[in-house]
Amino acid sequence: MTDMKEIEKRLREEAKKLLESGRVSVVLAYGKGCDERHPMPFAAMKPEEADEIVFNEYCTPNLARYLTKYPAGTKMAVAVKGCDSRAVVVLLQEGKVNREDIVILGIPAAGMKEQKTGKDVDASLTCGLANPVLYDVLLGQEIKGAAAESPYGIISKLDAMSGDERWEFWKKELARCIRCYACRKACPMCYCDPCFIDQTKPQWGDKTPTFDGNLMYHLTRFYHLAGRCVDCGECTRACPVDIPLNLFHKYMARECEEMFGQKAGMDPSQKPAMVDFKVEDSDTWLE
Amino acid sequence: MKKFAIEYLSGVIASLQQKGKVFAPVKEKDGFYFREIADPGDATLDFYNTVMSPKHLFFPQTEDMIKYRINKEGADSAPVPINSGPQILFGVRPPDVRSFELMDLLFEEGGIIDPYWVDKRKNTIVIGYAFDSVDPLDFYNTFDIHAADPRGSDIFLVRKDRTVLARAFTGKGEALLDGLAGLENASAADEKAFEDAVKKGPGLKTRKLDLNGVAKKLEAIFDAPYWQKASMACLNCGVCTFVCPTCSCFDICDETLFRDGRRCRTWDSCMFTNFTLEASGHNPRTRAFQRFRQRINHKFSYYVSKFGVTSCVGCGRCSRYCPVNIDIFSVVEKAKEV
C-alpha cells in the first residue's frame, strides 16, 4: 500500500504538470483546512497552487461532485478514490462531462478515517472498492487482496424486519430531517438545476420539515438515484443529524443489480441501467 | 445556592416539570439535541454541545401563524394564538446563552417586535451550564464569552465531579431555584467552588480572533476575488445556517392539504438559490460565492453596522457540521489579510 504522504507528493507533481502544460485549467483535489483532521476540497488553478494540495486519511469528500459545477467544456483533472471514480463514470455515461475534457487522477485508498469521529471508515457503509475503476494516472500501488465484504451486507438488518417495522424505521429517521439539503448538495449525482424540491410552479413538496414534505423529498431523491447511486456514502456523511440515507440507496442498488446485473459506474462502455432496454431485462416487478 | 448529585438529575428534571415545559439535552444516535422532556430520565448533562443550537426553543424551525379552511366564497381563517406558557431551558452552554441576547436585538429591540420570539423569551427560564473542556473548533473567546460565563443565564450550573452546583443570577431564577423540591442547600465550600469555577472559566482557551476593523474591512473587500477562492469548496447546502444559533432568516409559506391549510414561517437559508429569487424571476445572488459572502458579511459586518455587535458567538457548529469543513473563523481570519 502506498503511503499517504507519497500519494500527496505525486498528486502535487501531477497537478503542477497538468496546469503548467495547460492540459487542464482546474485540478480538483484536497487542500488544507483548519487542521489536519479537516482537509477541504480544493481547486488548484495555477501551477504554484499545486503545492497547497494535501492528502491524508481524512480526505473523504467525493470530488466528482465538483465536476458539474464548472461550465461544460472546462478542462479539469480530478483526484478520485474507488467510489469517487464510479461517480465520474456515471457522469461520463450521462454526458455531463466529456472524457476528453477530464484527466482522472486515481488514488488507491485504504485506511480512510471519518472526520467527525476519527474512526476508520466503515467499508460496509460504502461501496468497498479500494482502487478506482477508471483513471488516467494511478498515484500509488494498486491495492491487492479480497474486496471488502458485500456492500449490501449492512442492509440485512432491514431485510430481517417486517414491512411495518421497516416503515416505522424510515418514518422515524426521515422525521428527523431538517431539510438543509446537505445530502443532495454533497451527492455527485444530484446535479439537477433546479432540483425538483426547489421548484415552485408547481411546488412538489412542502418546504417545511414536516414528515410529509420530508418523505416527498427523500423518496423522490431515492428514486432519482436508482441505478445511479455509486454508494460513496457522501449523503450520509454530510447529514448533520445522522440519517442513514445510504441504507435506502443500497436497497435500490441491490434491486438494480439483481434485476439488470449492473452496478452503477463500474463500466464506462455500458449504458446506465435506467436508460437502457434489453429484451432479456427482468420483468419481475410486473408480477 | 443549591446543589444536587448528578445521579439525581432525573429527579431535578421531574421537579422542574412541575413549573413548566422542560427542554434539555437528549442523546439521539451520535448527537445531542434540546428536546422537550417527557421522561425525566432522558435528559443528560454528559454532553459537550448539541448538534442544533437551542434557538429553536424561541424560534422553531416551523411555526404556524394562521390556520385556514378554504370554502366556496374564499377562506375562513384565524390567527394561531401566541401563548407558549412557562418553559425551562436546561443546560445551555455560555455561547448559546449569549446568542439569545443577540437575537433579542433583531426580534425585539431593533424597532420591529416579533411577538412569537418575545412571547417565548419572556416565558422561558434559561439555565446555563459551564463547559469543562474545549473543542478545537470553538472560538467563543473572540466574543468575550468564557467557558464558565454565567451572564445571560437565570440560573447557572457548574459541574464539580459528581455534584452540580446551581446559582441563581436573576429574580426569576432565584424564585425557581428556591421553590424547587429535592435540591440540597450548598455549603460555604460549595459557594467557593462555584466562584472558583467561574473565575477559572477564562483559563479554558478557545481560538481567538481580533475583530478590530473587520466589519469595515469586509465592506472594503466586497468585490475582491478572495470570495471565489474562499467559497471554492462550498456546496451551498444549508447546514451552517440551520445549526447556527444566530441565523434568523425565515420564509413564510402557505401549506394546504385538501381544504385545510396553514400559513407558517419556516427557516430559510441565504445559502439556497431560491432565498433571493424575486417574483420577477430576477435573482441578485445567483452565484455560490455571492451567497457565501453574504453569510460572512451579514454576521461580521452588516449586523455590526446595524446593532453594534457581531452576530456570531463562536460556538463552532457551522465549522463542525460543514460537510466540506469550511471554517468561518479561518474565512474571517484570512479576509483580514486580503
Overall pLDDT of chain A: 92
Structural shape of chain B: globular
Largest interface, counted with CB-CB under 8 A?
A-B, 40 and 40 residues
Beta-strand residue fraction of chain B: 15-25%
Estimate the global geometry of chain A from the Cα principal axes.
globular
How big a fraction of the residues of chain A is strand?
A: 5-15%
Tally of strands of chain B? 12
Q: In order across it, which strands form the biggest sheet of chain B?
A: 3-2-6-7-8-9-1-10
Number of domains of chain A: 2
Q: Uncertain spans of chain B, ≥5 residues at pLDDT below 50?
A: none
Quickly count the helices of chain A: 8
CA-CA gap between termini of chain A:
48 Å
Descriptive labels:
heterodimer; A: alpha/beta; 2 domains; 8 helices; 5 strands; 30% helix; globular; B: 338 residues; alpha+beta; 8-stranded mixed beta sheet
Summarize the structure.
The complex is a heterodimer of chains A (287) and B (338). Chain A is an alpha/beta fold and 287 residues long. Chain A has helices spanning 4-21, 82-93, 156-159, 163-175, 182-186, 211-224, 234-238, 245-260; strands spanning 26-31, 40-44, 76-80, 102-106, 137-138.
